[in-house]
């Protein structure tokens, strides 16, 4: 398992819960389909191998699907860009996207409130018409996913974290998804283990936490601090 495509191909039961955020729930079959749709949608909006997708950090399912969709295409994720954005896509909540200038053909993709500007892509309106299947690609494991983390390095670290999880665990993400160790331990590792990712809302709790040292959960996962090296 070296790539995001390999991760999404793991044979977890379709009806098991993959992601929860407030009242929003994604069983594994819907989670996979939405990740594949996002990859196809990003491709349609100009993302391909080695393209950069700027994602505005938000504790929402769309952030996770943006990361996985970019990874499926061999794209590189950049969180919280500074200044005018010249990447292939700027992706985030409408109110945050509105704070940025884009240059060089960068495409705005917004979710949440419907954008007033008709030139912006509106994720919720358009994603559901995309194909829920993703064709095989030649994306390599050494392709950069985010920061200094390649897809293979991120998944090797996720496998190590997943050794401390079972499919019954609910992993509460209590740090920012912009932080690569939190992303690896809080999103990728549960997907390896067939566990549930929880983006906590109000007083929701899981069985284990990531991204904090003092959570309401009784256990905190150790997140990797840097990408693992090849043996």
UniProtKB/TrEMBL annotation:
Region feature (Disordered): 202-231
Source organism, top-level taxon: Archaea
Organism: Halanaeroarchaeum sulfurireducens
UniProt xrefs under InterPro entries: ANL_N_sf
Protein name: Uncharacterized protein
């Amino acid at each position: 398992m070296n790539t995001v495509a390999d991760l999404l191909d793991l044979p977890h039961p379709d009806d098991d819960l993959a992601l929860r955020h407030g009242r929003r729930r994604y069983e594994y079959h819907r989670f996979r389909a939405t990740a594949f749709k996002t990859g196809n949608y990003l491709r349609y909006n100009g993302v391909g191998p080695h393209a950069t997708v700027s994602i505005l950090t938000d504790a929402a399912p769309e952030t996770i699907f943006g990361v996985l969709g970019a990874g499926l295409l061999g794209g590189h994720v950049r969180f919280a860009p500074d200044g005018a954005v010249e990447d292939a896509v700027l992706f985030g909540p409408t109110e945050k996207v509105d704070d940025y200038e884009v240059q060089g053909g960068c495409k705005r993709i917004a979710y949440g409130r419907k954008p007033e500007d008709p030139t912006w892509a509106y994720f919720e309106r358009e994603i559901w018409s995309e194909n829920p299947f993703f064709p095989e690609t030649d994306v390599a494991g050494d392709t950069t996913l985010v920061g200094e983390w390649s897809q293979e390095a991120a998944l090797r670290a996720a496998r190590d974290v997943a050794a401390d999880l079972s499919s019954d665990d609910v992993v509460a993400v209590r740090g920012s998804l912009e932080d690569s160790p939190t992303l690896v331990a809080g999103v990728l590792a549960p997907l390896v283990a067939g566990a549930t990712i929880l983006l906590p809302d109000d007083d929701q709790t899981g069985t284990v936490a990531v991204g904090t040292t003092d959570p309401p959960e009784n256990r905190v996962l150790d997140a990797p601090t840097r990408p693992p090296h090849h043996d």
